[in-house]
Design brief:
Blueprint lengths: L1 H29 L11 E7 L5 E6 L7 E7 L5 E7 L4 E4 L7 E10 L2 E2 L6 E4 L4 H13 L3 H14 L4 H13 L3 H14 L4 H13 L3 H13 L6 H7 L3 H4 L1
Antiparallel strand pairs: 1-2, 2-5, 3-4, 3-6, 6-7, 6-8
Helix pairs in contact: 2-3, 3-4, 4-5, 5-6, 6-7
């Protein structure tokens, strides 16, 4: 009799568990059971990959997420820019402006809602060559020659074959009295673009001042051939030396 009672108790417990399971499933289906939102991501890292893109990476701390939202702001409030699948841990943000500071945060989401955001991280996109070039020209105009040199060198670091940057750098070296360095840059500009008239003219002036008249005449004539308006004073100054150069 005692054994029979134990069997009835075990059967009754199983029925109770089945009923509880069915009730939980019913509550879930009807939406009466609360689904907790996922744990937020952490360890957000941002890297400026180029002048127009930023790469993001984070730690996925959730196990019940349906996906992740990526938010960005540059000025004003945040805007959602991406909805990613579950288990995502990175995102590349493309088509950005150069030299701009962007802020990011990431959240996880599921049917229960959206998690708290990750920590915010900011990063500045890389300036493109025109940004550095314009800064260099502005510094040079203000007489900030060392700053101008630094900016022109950054352009050349990005684009070594930028003839304009080499010419501009040579001009600043010339203004600082660094004639040998100026000549190197102008010759490099001509090596990149043999028809760069301004570089030829700059070399003509410099070689004349250094009394290397044959080279001054050669570059002056090339500048004229390329359509550069060489001042009459230089032409008259070189005229007596043409016989010597022949």
């Amino acid at each position: 009799m005692k054994r029979l009672s134990v069997v009835f108790v075990m059967v009754g417990q199983r029925k109770g568990l089945i009923i509880l399971g069915l009730l939980a499933l019913l509550l879930l289906i009807t939406g009466c059971m609360h689904i907790p939102s996922p744990f937020p991501p952490s360890g957000l890292e941002t890297i400026a990959a180029s002048s127009g893109s930023i790469s993001l990476a984070w730690q996925d701390n959730a196990v019940t997420e349906d996906g992740f939202y990526v938010y960005r702001r540059s000025s004003g409030g945040y805007n959602r820019i991406a909805a990613l699948e579950a288990d995502a841990t990175s995102y590349d943000d493309l088509g950005l402006e150069a030299g701009i500071t962007y802020w990011y945060k990431v959240t996880a989401y599921n049917a229960g809602g959206e998690s708290n955001p990750s920590e915010e991280k900011s990063v500045i996109t890389e300036p493109d060559d025109s940004t550095h070039l314009n800064l260099g020209l502005e510094y040079a105009e203000k007489g900030m020659l060392d700053e101008a040199i630094a900016e022109f060198k950054k352009v050349i670091e990005i684009y070594p074959d930028d003839a304009l940057a080499h010419t501009a750098l040579g001009n600043v070296y010339y203004d600082k009295g660094m004639l040998d360095e100026a000549i190197v840059e102008w010759r490099k500009a001509i090596e990149i673009d043999p028809d760069y008239a301004l570089a030829h003219y700059n070399l003509a002036i410099t070689y004349y001042n250094e009394r290397i008249y044959s080279l001054a005449i050669r570059h002056c004539d090339k500048a004229i051939e390329l359509g550069y308006q060489v001042p009459l004073d230089l032409l008259r100054a070189l005229e007596p030396h043409r016989k010597e150069a022949r």
